[in-house]
Amino acid sequence: MKRRPPASPDDGLSPDDRRLWQRVTGTVTPPRKRKPPRVQLVAGPVEDPGAPARSEATDQTRTARRELVPPRTTQRRAPPTPSPAPSKPSPRKAAPPEDVEPNRKRRLTRERDPIEARIDLHGFGRFEAEDQLRGFLTACQARGMRAVLVITGQGRLGGGVIRASFAEWMHAPALRTIVSGYTVAHQRHGGNGAFYVTLRRKA
User: Fold this and answer.
1) Would the pTM count as exceeding 0.85?
2) How many angstroms separate the CA atoms of 119 and 3, rounded?
3) Which class for 130: exposed (0-12), middle (13-18), buried (19 or more C-beta within 10 A)?
4) Is 126 helix (H, G, I), strand (E, B) or coil?
């Protein structure tokens, strides 16, 4: 909407109206001219006018190559695996006791090989007799003895508990390193109620 220009003094006004008009126009300030808004344009890549125009196919090919190339990753070297420590050789297990050789038994019977100690297990219970026998044989081996006599008794009708358990005790792991052999004693040393026991040398 256009503004009307101020009236000229020749518009048929009286002198008083002109003075009043001049006062009014003197207080009016003309509007300032507005500057156009500043618009900042983002400049794109500047292309060389002399360079050949790039096609969309070339750009797509480069983009595809970038997507196909895997990102570089820094590979860390795994720490060297320590070599296993050499295994210690397992201790050699002692063989179970065997029957005393006939020649050795004959020498024991005739006491050409001395019977160096003897123990009588009469009157002990099964477990107490086993403890007494183990302690006795261990002490004899420690003293360097090689042959001893163990009296078990036959029990009633030959069914004594100690005699029946004697073979089991001789093959126990605790006595394998002590006893090398055993056999039934001669009649002069107790017969079926006693045993000759030979001992290993102490390592």
Assistant:
1) no
2) 145
3) buried
4) helix
